[in-house]
Amino acid sequence: MATDIAAAAEALLKARRDRVWLDALPEGARPANLEEATAVQQRVAEARGPVGGFKVGAANPQAVPGVAPLNTVDLIMTPGPVAASRFHVVGIEAEIAYLIGRDLPLRDTPYTREEVLDAVESLHPVIELVDTRFTRLGVTEPMSHVADQMNHGALVVGPALADWRKIDPVNQPVRLSFNDKTVVDHVGGNTAGDPVRLLQWLADTGARAYGGLVAGMVVTTGSCTGMLMIEPGTRVKAEFPGLGTVEVAVE
């Protein structure tokens, strides 16, 4: 029996609306594979409004990437506090994001590395606020969490670095602090390795259901710090020396 994609999407949308969290998706509506999980993602994203970008990552430099659409409503582009009541739980990940400056439309031939890089307008330090529509992170099978926008809550986008080609993301230092206390301070940290590989995959494959990459989209490329949970009242700062700093207070 085929998985009921529509029922899965509606359950996730209802959890968002009613703030009644799920132990699991309904019987018959639990995605059995990545194709079904991404179909649920797309249904939910379309119901929530315009897509303004993507999160993409990989378990290691050789792994097939995973992707989730980011709705414009979840992109925080201007500084300021964020209400904790907007979320169920709040995990923090410091990441590096690319702003697409030129369309990369769908085509049959793969994009080269340089074509993808030439379409990038700027590089940004970002903080992903991790959340779930389930009772807790990891409570149900992995594909259901993938369907739930890969545990996305919101993305805080820091200032643009236009002269970004000098940055080496693989060897980029990062320091993450909560209420001025350093919790992570290291170099690199992204399990995916080179994020440009992720951008190429996204342009060729991951964004196909959405018509490709479009100018103005923000693409965040995986955690450089791992995920750390916070409580309301936490001021978060992610510093990427040479790239920039992004901050948010979750109140």
Short description:
The protein is of the alpha+beta class. The chain has one domain: Fumarylacetoacetase-like, C-terminal domain (Fumarylacetoacetate hydrolase, domain 2).
CATH class: Alpha Beta
Stretches where pLDDT falls below 50 for ≥5 residues?
none
Shape: globular
Q: How many individual domains?
A: 1
The amount of beta strand, in percent, is 25-35%
CATH topology: Fumarylacetoacetate hydrolase, domain 2
Major β-sheet profile: 8 strands, mixed
Radius of gyration, whole Å: 17 Å
CATH architecture: Alpha-Beta Complex
Count every helix, treating DSSP H or I runs of 4 or more residues as helices. 5
CATH superfamily: Fumarylacetoacetase-like, C-terminal domain
Number of strands: 14
Distance between the termini: 45 Å
Order of helices and strands: HHEEEEEHEHEEEHEEEEE
Helix/strand class: alpha+beta
Protein model, in words:
This is Fumarylacetoacetate hydrolase family protein. This protein has 251 residues and is α+β, with helices and mostly antiparallel strands. The chain has one domain (50-250): Fumarylacetoacetase-like, C-terminal domain (Fumarylacetoacetate hydrolase, domain 2, Alpha-Beta Complex). The chain is built from five helices and 14 strands. The strands form three sheets. Strands 1, 2, 3, 4, 6, 7, 11 and 12 form an eight-stranded mixed β-sheet that branches. A hairpin with a 2-residue loop joins β8 (173-178) and β9 (181-187). α1 packs across α2 (34-48). The longest helix has 15 residues, at 34-48. The chain is globular. The model has no long low-confidence stretch (mean pLDDT 97).
